[in-house]
Design brief:
The protein is an alpha+beta fold. It contains 2 helices and 6 strands; from the N terminus they run βββαβαββ. The chain has one domain: RutC-like (60s Ribosomal Protein L30, Chain: A), CATH 3.30.1330.40. The longest helix has 18 residues.
């Protein structure tokens, strides 16, 4: 009889009410769903330095959530980006390419009218990992 492990919720260190990530066991593999991240620092404020700095911090926050769930950017199979200004897409795409290198995930980008905390970008991710 196969027993599938329970969901593992990676607690959000700053916010209450949602997990930073949820690990869903599916036999020998697990899906890791990373909540949308914005470019905020440990204090919870959006980083200074413009859109590129915010994008880099956003991906650093995703990396932290992935690591806590036992995953890396290599394991990411899907991302969705929400941009307040689609004119910022080339900068986002440049940073995304640096982050993922040759391991491109499936990706979608959506233009939105507003984001929490005055962010200009939010990105969520899905990864697949082999259960140890």
């Amino acid at each position: 009889m196969n027993v599938i492990a329970p969901l593992r919720r990676i607690r959000n260190e700053r916010d209450r009410g949602f997990s930073a990530a949820v690990v869903v066991p599916l036999g020998p593999k697990s899906l890791v769903f990373v909540s949308g991240e914005v470019g905020r620092d440990l204090s919870g404020a959006i980083v200074q330095g413009g859109f590129e700095a915010e994008t880099r911090q956003c991906f650093a926050n995703i990396k932290h959530a992935l690591e806590r769930a036992g995953a890396t950017f290599t394991d990411v199979v899907r991302i969705t980006a929400y941009l307040k200004n689609l004119a910022d897409y080339p900068v986002y795409a440049k940073v995304r390419t640096e982050v993922f290198g040759a391991d491109w995930p499936a990706s979608a980008t959506v233009g939105v009218s507003d984001l929490l905390l005055g962010a200009k970008l939010e990105v969520d991710a899905v990864a697949v990992v082999t259960v140890a």
